[in-house]
Design a protein that fits this description.
Elements lengths: L2 H4 L16 H25 L3 E7 L5 H21 L5 E8 L5 H19 L6 E7 L12 E7 L33 H25 E13 L11 H14 L5 H5 L10 H11 L2 E12 L2 H4 L8 H25 L4 H16 L5 E11 L1
Parallel strand pairs: 1-2, 1-4, 2-3, 4-5
Antiparallel strand pairs: 5-7, 6-7
Helix pairs in contact: 2-3, 3-4, 5-8, 6-11, 10-11
C-alpha cells in the first residue's frame, strides 16, 4: 500500500464526505480551543510580529479546515484591541497529502474572506492562504519561517505500512486484523511502535528547523490508554471483525484481509511524551488527556443523544468511512464499500449495547527551544 497515493479523506460535500462526517475532529478542536487561545496570546505578545506565519499540517478539507484560522485571528484581534495595536497580517499554509481535496478548501475562501470583512471590518489586516501538498514527515518550509504550527487528528497516520509484518516463511503476522489490535502479536505492536517513533521524531526534527526560536506548536493526537486485558475495542478493530464476517460469507477473500495492514497507530501518552523528550527540540507547556465519544453528535447533546444506538452506529460508521474509504477501496474494491459500512454500523450498534464507545485524545502545547 503506497500511503501517499491512497490516504486521503473523502472529498466533496456528499453524504459520505469528510466535510459532512468530521464532527469528531471538530469536537477535538473545541477541546483544544482554550489551549490554542493561550498559546496564540503568548506567542503574539512575546514577538509582536507584523506578519504571523501559520501552518496547519494535515488540514484535510471541509468546515474544520478554516475554523482553526478563524480562532487564531479572533484571539489575536481581541489581544490587539486590548494592547491598542494594529492587527498583523497573516500568512497561512494549509498542508496535506497531494490527494487531499484542496479544491473544496479554495472554493470556500471567498466566503471566509467575506466573513472576515463583515465581522472584523474592511481595515482588518490582510490574510494570505496557500495550499502546501506533501508529507509532513519531512521538510515543507524554509528554515525559521514559521511562528505557529498546528496539527489535529493527523499524526496517528503513519508514513507507510510498518515493515516486519511477515514471518521468515512468508506468513502474515497480523493475520485476521487490518491494523494493530489488542490481540495482535507482540512483534506487530513493536513494528507499529517503532515506525511511529521514527515518524514522529522526523516530524519534530523537521518542524524544529522550520519554526523560529520561541515559536509554538499545538498537536491533538488520537491516543490509546488501554492496558493489557482491557476488553474495550476500537472502531478499527470492529471494522476488521466486520471484514472477517464477510470472509465467512464468501464476500471477501480471506487473503485480502490477512495481507492488509493500515498505516494507523494510536500511541499512548507515555509513548508520545518519550519521543518529544528524546528528540529534544521542544519544551512541553501543557499535555492534556481527555475522553471523546465516538459519536460527536452525542457529545454535543444533539438529537443523536435520544435517537438510540442504531443511529449512533450509523454516525460512527460514516465517520470511519470518511477517513478510510480511499485506502480500503484500493485494496478490497469499491463495490463492497456500501455493504461493508452498513454492516459496520450494525456491528458498532451491537458493541454499544455492551460498552461505551470512547477514544482517548491528547492535546500537547509546546514551544521551540
Amino acid at each position: 500500500m503506497e500511503v501517499q497515493q491512497v490516504l486521503c479523506m473523502n472529498g466533496g460535500r456528499g453524504d459520505t464526505s469528510y466535510a459532512n462526517n468530521s464532527k469528531i475532529q471538530k469536537r477535538a478542536m473545541l477541546k483544544a480551543k482554550p489551549i490554542l487561545q493561550d498559546s496564540i496570546k503568548k506567542l503574539y505578545c512575546n514577538r509582536l510580529p507584523e506578519c504571523l506565519k501559520i501552518a496547519d499540517l494535515g488540514c484535510s478539507s471541509g468546515p474544520n479546515t478554516l475554523s482553526l484560522l478563524w480562532e487564531v485571528i479572533d484571539t489575536i484581534d481581541g489581544t490587539c484591541k486590548r494592547l491598542n495595536r494594529e492587527a498583523p497580517m497573516y500568512q497561512v499554509f494549509l498542508n496535506d497529502l497531494p490527494g487531499n481535496d484542496f479544491n473544496t478548501i479554495f472554493k470556500s475562501l471567498p466566503g471566509f474572506y467575506e466573513k472576515l470583512k463583515e465581522v472584523k471590518g474592511s481595515n482588518f489586516g490582510p490574510c494570505f492562504i496557500a495550499g502546501i501538498p506533501g508529507s509532513f514527515y519531512g521538510r515543507l518550509f524554509p528554515n525559521k519561517s514559521l511562528h505557529f504550527v498546528h496539527s489535529s487528528y493527523s499524526l496517528h497516520w503513519l508514513s507507510q505500512v510498518p515493515e516486519g509484518l511477515v514471518s521468515e516463511s512468508g506468513v502474515p503476522l497480523n493475520k485476521g486484523h487490518i491494523c494493530m489490535a489488542k490481540t495482535s502479536p507482540v512483534g506487530v505492536h513493536e513494528a507499529y511502535l517503532d515506525l511511529f517513533e521514527r515518524d514522529f521524531t522526523l516530524f519534530l526534527t523537521s518542524r524544529s528547523e522550520e519554526i523560529l526560536s520561541g515559536g509554538h506548536v499545538l498537536l491533538s493526537i488520537i491516543g490509546n490508554d488501554r492496558k493489557p486485558g482491557d476488553p474495550r475495542c476500537t472502531g478499527w478493530e470492529l471494522l476488521g471483525v466486520t471484514l472477517n464476517d464477510m470472509v465467512l460469507e464468501g464476500l471477501v477473500e480471506e487473503a485480502k484481509v490477512d495481507w492488509v495492514n493500515l498505516p494507523y497507530y494510536a500511541p499512548s501518552p507515555e509513548e508520545v511524551r518519550h519521543v518529544i523528550q528524546t528528540e529534544g527540540s521542544f519544551n512541553i507547556r501543557r499535555f492534556d488527556i481527555h475522553t471523546v465519544d465516538w459519536d460527536a453528535n452525542k457529545d454535543d447533546g444533539s438529537k443523536s443523544l435520544t435517537s438510540g444506538r442504531h443511529t449512533r452506529g450509523k454516525n460512527i460508521a460514516k465517520s470511519i468511512r470518511a477517513v478510510s474509504e480511499s485506502m480500503l477501496a484500493s485494496h478490497f474494491g469499491e463495490e463492497i464499500m456500501d455493504d461493508l459500512f452498513e454492516r459496520l454500523a450494525i456491528k458498532i450498534s451491537e458493541y454499544l449495547e455492551l460498552a461505551p464507545g470512547h477514544s482517548t485524545a491528547m492535546v500537547i502545547s509546546m514551544t521551540k527551544s
